[in-house]
Amino acid sequence: MAQKLFDKTVLKFLIVGIFNTLVGCGIMFLLYNLAGCSYWFSSAANYVIGSIVSFFLNKYFTFQKKEWSWKQVGKFALNVAVCYFLAYGAAKPLVLYLLSGQAIQVQENIAMLVGMCLYTGLNYLGQRFFAFQK
Question: What is the pLDDT of residues 113-122, one digit of tens each?
Answer without folding.
Answer: 999 899 989 9
